[in-house]
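Chapter summary example.
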Amino acid sequence: MNELEGLLEPAGLDVGVRERLARYGLFVLETGRRVNLTGARSGAEIAAHLLDSLTVISHVAEPYVDVGSGAGFPAVPVAIATGVDVTMIEATAKKARFLESALQMLGIRGRVVAERVEIAAHRPDLRERFASGTARALGSAPTVAELVLPLIAVGGVAVLQRGAISADERRALDDAALVLGGAVERELVLNGDRRLLIVRKVQTTPLRFPRRSGVPARRPLCVIPEKRSP
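The structure predicted for these 230 residues follows.
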């Protein structure tokens, strides 16, 4: 058992799952020495990312999409642990190539879409095609909702992994979800300030969303701009 497997052992994972997660985690660390994939630089940091990724599993259904996949958290650990077919949308070419390699190395069913999600979410083969979607570290909650909900079929869920969230951001998410055809169903508080926001898709997202590249991040829906001092 290597160090990373040992760090994952207390989670009580199936041995085969633990071994594959550790293999993936080591691949992230090794590749990260050459390519900027993630800020994690140690086995302990990678183990934390892996375990945090697994918190979404009970909310994931197939077909499943992950937006802004980066190094593959949470999508790759979810696919390893559940066997779901995964679509990962990642605009940065070097990260998309890494994800392709990870799928092949681990024998994961899935594909990588090397495109900005603002563009990908308007493709007929992707728009409103997924039963569930995840996103991690993509910006404010309203921004993430705008990027994920257009991909989710009516009745499906967007699972947003967040840290602490202010009352203003939470209210903005509630309002943005309604604009996008969704409704915040639950907020689950995990360890520390980590939480999951479960947004149910209740009706079709208007075709104008997501807005053009960069706009959801620069001008999040339903967020009141701060007034500048004179």
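To summarize the output: Residues 58-218 form a domain with the Rossmann fold fold (CATH 3.40.50.150).
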